[in-house]
Amino acid sequence: MNQNKLYNTLEIPGSFLVPGFSIYALEIIKEKQKWFYIGMTGDPHYPSTRSAYYRLVGHLELNKRSTQNQLRIAMKGKLGINNDEDFKNITLRMHHYPIPGFKRLADKLSDKEAVKRLKQTPAYKEYKEIQQKVLALENALIFELKDKLLNKTTGKSIKQETIPCPEIYRSILELVNNG
Fold it and tell me: Nearest 5°: phi and psi at 79?
């Protein structure tokens, strides 16, 4: 960072703030080297999804008991990013790929019985179909790129002809392989 600059700017496109299905690639740049982390939005256990920005913030969560801060853990273990000074020397980019089809099923699902009833509806079955496609895309990307990622999982191999959203798949492969 330029020592004379008084401020930094963060610009967030509105699509990053809207809950919905998406795949994202987090690009971490440190000393002219790049690493990537692949993730998705769309909860497999609960009928909701988060915004891409919410997921990014969760990945950087400081709470040691957090279950969503996998990126922070990977950066500490694999990149030696342990403190505020280390964080000052990285750049983080989020490449966000929205996937159509998300419909909000309810404003609030505060009790287990409401969730249980919702899971019996056609709308929830449609939600799960799309969520499973996003999960398959994430797994295929992680499997194909696993040696270049900070992800702790290794993904799953699926047949090329069954990969959902092939244009997104190819775009992320190109980003990571040529990044």
Answer: -115, -5
The C-alpha angle with vertex 42 and arms to 100 and 174, in degrees rounded to 5, equals 65
Per 3-state DSSP, the chain is made up of helix, strand and coil in percentages (nearest 5) of 40, 15, 40
Which residue shows structure tokens 């610009």?
Answer: 11
DSSP state at residue 44: S
* pLDDT-based confidence at residue 42 (cuts at 50, 70, 90): confident
pTM score of the predicted model: 0.88
Q: Give alpha helix (H) positions in the chain.
A: 52-59, 70-79, 84-87, 112-118, 122-145, 166-178
Average model confidence (pLDDT) for the chain? 89
The Cα 117–Cα 76 span in angstroms is 42
Higher pLDDT, 104 or 90: 90
Q: What angle do CA 111, 23, 32 make, to 5 degrees?
A: 130
Find out whether 130 and 21 touch, Cβ atoms under 8 Å: yes
